[in-house]
Amino acid sequence: MSDAYPEFRLRLPNGGPEALGRLLAEKGARGSRKFIVAAGSPVRAEVVQSFAVRKPPSHRTRQQLIAEGAIRESSRRPGWLETVRDIEFSSPSAAAEVLMGCSVNGWGVWKSADGQSLAAYLGQAADGPNRCWLVRGSNVTGLDLVQRLWLSDGCVTLAASRLRQGVQQGISKEDLRTLVQEDYESTATYSQRQQLVESVHAFLSRMKPGDTVCTISGGRLYAGQITGEAEQTESEGGRSNLRRPVEWQPTGYAYDELPEELQQKLSIQHDVVELTAVQAVIDGLGLTNEELAEEAEAIERDPSMEIPAITVRRELELPAPTDELAAELLVHETEWLREVRDLLWDDRQLVFYGPPGTGKTYLALQLAEFFGGGPEQVKLVQFHPSYAYEDFFEGFRPQEDPESREVAFRLTAGPLRELADLASREGNRHIPHFLIIDEINRANLAKVFGELYFLLEYRNKSVRLTYSGDDFALPPNLFVIGTMNTADRSIALVDAAMRRRFAFVELSPRTQPTSGLLRRWLTSQGRDSEPADLLEVLNSRIEDPDFRIGPSYLMKKGVYRDGGLERTWRTKILPLLEEHHYGEDVDIEKRYGITALRASLPGPLPEPSA
Questions:
Q1: Contact 341/364 with Cβ under 8 angstroms?
Q2: What per-residue confidence (pLDDT) applies to 407?
Q3: Each residue of 182-204: b (16+ CB within 10 Å) or e?
Q4: For the residues 211-222, what does the mean pLDDT come to?
Q5: What SS3 class is residue 100?
Q6: What is the pTM of this model?
Q7: CATH among 3.10.590, 3.40.630, 3.30.2450, 3.40.50 for 132-305
Q8: Is the dihedral of CA 589, 595, 598, 600 positive or negative?
């Protein structure tokens, strides 16, 4: 074997023996470094079920080597195969895949004597997890390079036509920024130069062999593995003069059928986008849980750790309301709660609207805690006329430095950004999180939501944020429940755009579950039904349904102390009606006073005559 590089070792799974190999300086037809596996190296006897589909070239190579006798049963290691001669492979990954019978990153599993991975030894990157990238190639100056070049030639490219020759892989961002400034000063705007620096630096210095790369073409997502170093080459029109070799998977995946959180990342409009946050989703595309588990078992790994590609598939769900919940909330029937749950599931946003005192905020909080599994997943904010985007999502606010004691304006996250960040953390993505917006119609909604208004309707998209410049999407497990008070007429200001984005559920004294709520509560408390009778008579005298009185005014302990009912009626209910009839010649006490209402209640039936 060649002595150009030191010997590298591959430990086969489940405490298996070690294979030996060396990297060659020579490159294969598609640009990856060739690799030789030494004679006598062990080979796993079985292959995983998905091997032929995921890695057809390696599967064919393995079958051919077995057929020609280059790999055969081992006489030294019962239950294993072994190589009978030195075998040259097109890449370290191809060598590892043939030996292990599954899809594997050869740049990470081949180790030097001191435990360094092959990629780290070559200075490609420090040892650590691989990353995942999106590189766009379906519209490079009008050409679809994915179909025309990438899939057929086994590569991924980036256009940098004016960048001088000799730019080295691993260049620092500062050095690259200087070169781009000089080479593109008269042909690109400042923002275009900044974006080019980010894309080229990621392509040359952050990507490494073994990383996953994705692209989109013809409505399909294609994924592959980077198998070699970056090169700067001459190309037609400079459209693909930066290039890396890639082993692409043979099939693509329909974009419309991809998980929502992956679609969100893919919607970011840059030439190069890091997708590491959703790499587990990409790793699991096209495979069943059983196939993923089999692949994981074929690779040496900690058996106590969950398999990421299976973990991310844990279903997001809103638990079905129970009869016990309906009884606790005093809702007339469980089916009404199930309908609310279905509306939330379908639209992700819902508004409870109705007159004051109908329990909108209480019901929103209780349902959010039930669906989310506890108060830790629920955050409440209250809108008001001066509430702004900077308060709600993010903005610059004065903050004191704890060391210097100086006050400066710093970018600060608001409640929605905080909750979205919490909901999108690893391990939280299958848990529902709820933002309760009390009095949602009291603020200028277009001003408060800003570009987020778009995301309420298009949850599979992302937008560039105003202040931070981050690309942001609403997590699929983030739900919004708003409340609206119809008595102040501000609901009339809610525009059609918001009505399209939210489901609206009425809580009104004229309909269930609100109309019978007080009577059910009084029964559960063992109290007389007179307050419910009085409230029904009162509301029957109020012509405008938006000003009818909700039951929560009469569901407080103070109402049932001595004189409490009369006191509540005089100080809480009548002032609301005085405001409603302001400027009208209405005798509030005569029409709505508790004495007048009691007089209208039906009296006891007369005793039957003897």
A1: no
A2: 86
A3: ebbeeebeeeebebbbbbbbbbb
A4: 95
A5: helix
A6: 0.86
A7: 3.10.590
A8: negative
